[in-house]
């Protein structure tokens, strides 16, 4: 029986996880039996395994949060006994594959549980400047208000009044950004050799270095297609209105700490 090599792509929403997953999926790597379809916010596709997506969303709802995972106030989520068995079944269905992966940003909140379930799991952790993440999230909020109001949960007060006030959403998204990236920092500190951590901008400018690092992480060649055959520059913004989208101090600090631990240097 072949040894299975699993890895996941983790990181805050709008940080480039779809870009990396799409590139690797287009190179023939398995990312799920059914993937979330493209949308205006991700024209080339999300490349999210719908089984993991629905599983994580239901846990967030059970905990009293919106299924998007964008309005959390903590990041220490764990599976209950039933959820543990569901996750185990999803994973077992893939363990006959030599190489497999999944990408779903909410995965970041459950990394501790997944490391327990899959001891040899490798993690590709992606991060991005907080002002760019917040800007991207706010643009999606304005364009797709429904995304934040579907399946309202009683405990969420904000769903009744999506007022588009920038200061409110900068505060909300800064907090979420910090919580997601704290999980990346923690897992990198706990298992440095099992996590590849990098800024998406560094990957875009040096895809060959990224590929080399992933091969080292997984211990096998990937035969990825040329990055330029998949990458579309206009889909990843490199600037924003810094006056209106200044992240809070904690978000900026988490970004600085990620930079210190990054495996990809310019």
Strand-helix topology:
Layout lengths: L4 E7 L5 H10 L23 H13 L18 H12 L6 E5 L7 H7 L4 E6 L2 H14 L2 H4 L16 H25 L4 E5 H6 L1 H12 L30 H13 L5
Structural features, described:
- This protein is an alpha/beta fold and 266 residues long.
- 44% of the residues lie in helices and 9% in strands.
- The protein has helices at 17-26, 50-62, 81-92, 111-117, 130-143, 146-149, 166-190, 200-205, 207-218, 249-261; strands at residues 5-11, 99-103, 122-127, 195-199.
- It has a 4-stranded parallel sheet with strand order 2-1-3-4, with helices on both faces.
- Helix 7 packs parallel to helix 10.
Features:
alpha/beta, 9% strand, four-stranded parallel β-sheet, globular, 266 residues, 10 helices
Overall 3D form: globular
Cα Rg: 18 Å
Structural class: alpha/beta
- What profile does the largest beta sheet have? 4 strands, parallel
Share of residues in helices: 40-55%
| Annotation field: number of helices | 10
Quaternary structure = single chain
Series of secondary-structure elements, N-terminal to C-terminal: EHHHEHEHHHEHHH
The main sheet orders its strands as 2-1-3-4
Average pLDDT number: 88
Distance between the termini: 40 Å
What is this entry, summarized?
By secondary structure, this protein is α/β, with parallel strands linked by helices. It has helices spanning 17-26, 50-62, 81-92, 111-117, 130-143, 146-149, 166-190, 200-205, 207-218, 249-261, and strands at residues 5-11, 99-103, 122-127, 195-199.
């Amino acid at each position: 029986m072949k040894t299975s090599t699993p890895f996941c792509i983790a990181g805050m929403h709008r940080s480039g996880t779809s870009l990396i997953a799409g590139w690797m999926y287009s190179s023939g790597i398995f990312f799920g039996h059914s993937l979330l379809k493209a949308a205006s916010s991700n024209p080339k596709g999300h490349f999210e395994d719908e089984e993991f997506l629905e599983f994580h969303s239901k846990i967030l709802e059970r905990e009293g949060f919106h299924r998007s995972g964008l309005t959390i106030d903590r990041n220490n989520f764990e599976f209950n006994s039933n959820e543990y068995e569901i996750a185990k079944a999803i994973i077992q269905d893939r363990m006959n594959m030599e190489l497999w992966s999944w990408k779903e940003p909410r995965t970041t909140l459950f990394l501790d549980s997944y490391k327990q379930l899959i001891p040899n799991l490798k993690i590709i952790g992606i991060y991005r400047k907080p002002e760019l993440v917040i800007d991207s999230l706010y643009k999606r909020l304005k364009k797709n208000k429904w995304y934040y109001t579907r399946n309202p949960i009683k405990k969420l007060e904000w769903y009744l009044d999506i007022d588009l006030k920038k200061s409110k959403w900068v505060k909300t998204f800064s907090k979420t950004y910090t919580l997601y990236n704290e999980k990346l920092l923690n897992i990198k500190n706990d298992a440095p050799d099992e996590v590849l951590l990098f800024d998406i901008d560094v990957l875009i400018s040096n895809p060959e270095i990224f590929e080399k690092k992933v091969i080292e992480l997984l211990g096998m060649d990937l035969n990825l297609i040329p990055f330029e055959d998949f990458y579309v520059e206009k889909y990843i913004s490199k600037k924003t209105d810094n006056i209106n989208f200044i992240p809070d101090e904690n978000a900026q600090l988490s970004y600085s700490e990620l930079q210190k631990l990054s495996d990809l240097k310019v």
